[in-house]
Write a structure and sequence with these properties.
The chain has helices spanning about 30-40, 70-80, 85-90, 125-135, 185-190, 270-280, 290-295, 320-325, 335-350, 355-385, 390-405, 415-420, 425-465, 470-480, 485; strands at about 20-25, 45-50, 65-70, 90-95, 95-100, 105-110, 120, 140-145, 145-150, 155-160, 165-170, 175, 195-210, 230-235, 240-245, 250-255, 300-310, 310-315, 315-320. It is an alpha/beta fold. The protein has three domains: about 20-90 and about 115-195 and about 305-385, FAD/NAD(P)-binding domain; about 200-300, no CATH class; about 425-488. The strands form four sheets. It has a seven-stranded mixed β-sheet with strand order 6-5-14-15-16-13-17. The longest helix is centred in the last third of the chain and has 41 residues, at about 425-465. The relative contact order is 0.13. It binds flavin-adenine dinucleotide.
Length: about 500
Amino acid sequence: MASTESTESAGAHRDSGRGRHALVVGAGLAGCLLATYLARDGWKVRLCERRADPRAAGAAGGRSINLAISARGLKALRRAGLEEKVLDSGVRMPGRMIHPVAGEAFFTPYSADPTRAINSVSRGGLNRLLLEAAEAEANVEVRFERRASHVDFDGGVVEFETPEGAERHQADLVVATDGAYSAIRAEMQRTERFDYEQSYLGHGYKELVIPPVAAGSGPHAPFAMDPAALHIWPRGGSMMIALPNQDGSFTCTLFWPWEGPGSFAEISTPAAAAEHFRRVYPDAVPLMPTLEADFERNPVGSMVTVRCRPWTRGGRTALLGDAAHAIVPFYGQGANASFEDCEALLEALRAHREIPDALAAYERERIDNANAIADLALRNFIEMRDLAGRRSFRIRKAIEHLLTRLFPNSFEPLYDRVSFGTKPYVEALETAQRHDRGFRIAAFASTAAAIAIVVAGLVLAARLGGGGGSTSGDVAAAATTNTGAIAP
Ligand SMILES: Cc1cc2nc3c(=O)[nH]c(=O)nc-3n(C[C@H](O)[C@H](O)[C@H](O)COP(=O)(O)OP(=O)(O)OC[C@H]3O[C@@H](n4cnc5c(N)ncnc54)[C@H](O)[C@@H]3O)c2cc1C
């Protein structure tokens, strides 16, 4: 057995990973960042990944997803000294550009503060950057083509399938960062009193591309559209978005229902897609010369929300990132939240002498927050695909930005809290619920006030028309009984 087991006691104290061994399963975004953190705290880290090295020629590339990285992710990257590198590789997006079916696209800033922006970053590029950072640590050993298949939670032993046969690794701390379809979580499901809930979205997603344009062929060349925005084509039950890349291209993502009208099942051929695009996304069509080929070639992915509890087993194994809380991508927070998990686990390990205590503290801090951002992400899908195109949405955003300017110390819109703040997601969700109540009351009050004004106007007109002289009782009677007669 290849062992990473420590001969030292599992006792922990601040900054005392030295001599202890951690096994991180899954070299995705969270696994690589966590490995870097732990190594710098003195842990000996083995990072095992199912896939081949993504930097090797011929390695399966995965999807060409772009991520919006915002304050929470940047804070966690800063801790590893990687914030600047990530920002340098991305494109700033200070707002949304909404594309209606007909008419001009319009821009809505994400924040009243014009310096605030989210950042479009390639997921593959970010993963490579994080992998290189982890590998640069002397006490991180990365092993590819290791698929975790079984766990002994009490012993801290994980079995892997490899091209050379089975392999087992043991460690003081085992962290499962093996993504939304985590094998380690699946093993936890077989243990007692493990709560698990998974729900697939009725929509799938497909990646498309808007390529760069030639120099001089538009105000934003080499970009075909303004790169300083996340572009959204909200269409009620579905939508398309586009995020800019530094090379002048945009990565587009279609979010369509799996079944029914306007679904991937209904629009299944490249020709049908092109015809649909001409009707539904007319301004995008001239920018997408490879639409039909991309539509045919690229697969449709599913989106799942996973909630589970507990996140730890046997006192030394923990779930982290998508393995613990897969969420739908509509708040752009999956990776950001996973990076926050890494910080929370590191802090818990520093604060607690015993690993089981640290894992319990980590779980306590993160689990409700993960559920909160899962709820917010589902809610934001409705906002993006439906509400964002409506006038009422623009009015609400304008009011929110006005309130922010008027009451900078007491009012902060939900979007700012989630994407530009780092306070717990639970607090952001509570604020969202409070704001919703406030806006509903304001909408009700303004409707009531508008009705009152109309009624008063009608009554006044009736009085003037009828010679006046009525008492307030007459006014009320006029309001209730003479409305039809007064109407033009
Ligand atoms: C369409 C889409 C858009 C998104 N947009 C955003 C966004 O804008 N902003 C944002 O913050 N997040 C976004 N996300 C979410 C983000 O991609 C994830 O939250 C993030 O990748 C989670 O990181 P992770 O390390 O937990 O999992 P992953 O990045 O999925 O990494 C898991 C790793 O584990 C490996 N693995 C799997 N099984 C095993 C096994 N049995 N043994 C060993 N290794 C294994 C995998 O190969 C992979 O390398 C988006 C996701 C999607 C699908």
